[in-house]
Design a protein that fits this description.
- The protein has about 260 residues and is of the alpha/beta class.
- The protein has a domain at about 40-50 and about 90-250: P-loop containing nucleotide triphosphate hydrolases (Rossmann fold), CATH 3.40.50.300.
- The chain contains 8 helices and 10 strands.
- Strand 1 (about 10-20) and strand 2 form a beta hairpin.
- Helix 3 crosses helix 4 (about 125-135) and helix 3 (about 110-120) runs parallel beside helix 5 (about 155-165).
- The chain is globular and about 60 Å long.
- The structure holds adenosine-5'-diphosphate and magnesium ion.
Length: about 260
């Protein structure tokens, strides 16, 4: 049955599964994940190491094929596509950022960003012009001619983000995109993701194990043992946590229920 909402979801998974056979042993890396992500959502995926975050993200991004269930990207079922068709979906619909920036060391920032457009089947933009616009958007206007080694980690990751956005993908996926960055650079990269969300309407899903970063997502999913253990509005849960903390402090007498006004 066609779901009437399926055309509006950028990502929809239905009972998604991945079993990995290691000799005699089968690892159930993802064990039935059903998830709908609406256009423009900024979703975080958290969970312990080995809980299946990368495997789930890989299947959503068409880098890995499911052993059960379905993945729809922009309404298209990609669960059973061959490698050639998957490559096309990835090129046209999905931008990727990883923990390591994977920039080409001999090319300038501008050339790195423009590169995917040089190979695009349908070119919507002039590559150099579009690369310049994106680098400007992400605050790298004076870094265009630098090579990766001449840039900080945060700058390199913003170049990688600009490269991921150069084909205007509706969906951006990040596996620990701040995993290799200090707090300051991480904040800059999250701001850059917010800019992409606001300026281009990009739907963003990132895996992170940094709770300060997770707290900034619009929605958070926790994976435990390959299943969704919790799916919540991150800001609402931060408010609930604050209220609970006040309640605990009042109960323990640490703060007064009726504070006296200062004289
Ligand atoms: P996370 O990203 O949350 O740390 P992963 O998705 O990488 O978790 O891994 C989920 C489970 O699948 C783990 O138990 C891991 O050991 C296993 N796994 C992941 N990739 C492979 C692989 N290529 N071969 C065998 N087992 C794997
Ligand atoms: Mg991982």
């Amino acid at each position: 049955m066609a779901n009437p909402n399926s055309n509006h979801a950028v990502v929809r998974t239905e009972d998604l599964r991945k079993d990995l056979k290691l000799g005699e042993v089968t690892v159930h890396a993802v064990r039935g994940v059903s998830l709908t992500v609406a256009p423009g959502e900024f979703l975080g995926i958290i969970g312990p190491s080995g809980s299946g975050k990368s495997t789930l993200l890989g299947m959503i991004g068409g880098l890995d094929t499911p052993t059960g269930g379905k993945v729809f990207i922009d309404g298209q079922d990609i669960s059973n596509l061959d490698e050639r068709a998957l490559t096309r979906v990835r090129n046209e619909k999905i931008g990727f950022v990883f923990q390591f920036f994977n920039l080409i060391p001999t090319l300038s920032a501008l050339e790195n960003v423009a590169l995917p457009l040089q190979f695009a089947r349908k070119r919507k933009h002039n590559p150099a012009k579009r690369a310049r616009e994106l680098l400007d958007m992400l605050g790298l206007e004076d870094r265009k001619n630098h090579r990766p080694a001449q840039l900080s980690g945060g700058e390199q990751q913003r170049v990688a983000l600009a490269r991921a956005l150069v084909n205007d993908p509706p969906l951006l996926l990040g596996d620990e995109p701040t995993g290799n960055l200090d707090t300051f650079s991480s904040e800059i990269v999250i701001k850059a993701l917010r800019t992409a969300q606001a300026e281009m309407g990009t739907t963003i899903i990132i895996v992170t194990h940094n709770m300060d970063i997770a707290a900034q997502m619009d929605r958070l999913i926790s994976l435990v043992d390959g299943k969704i253990a919790e799916d919540r509005d991150a800001r609402a849960s931060a408010r609930l946590a604050a209220v609970q903390m006040l309640r605990d402090k009042r109960q323990s007498g640490e703060i007064s229920m009726f504070p006296t006004s200062p004289r």
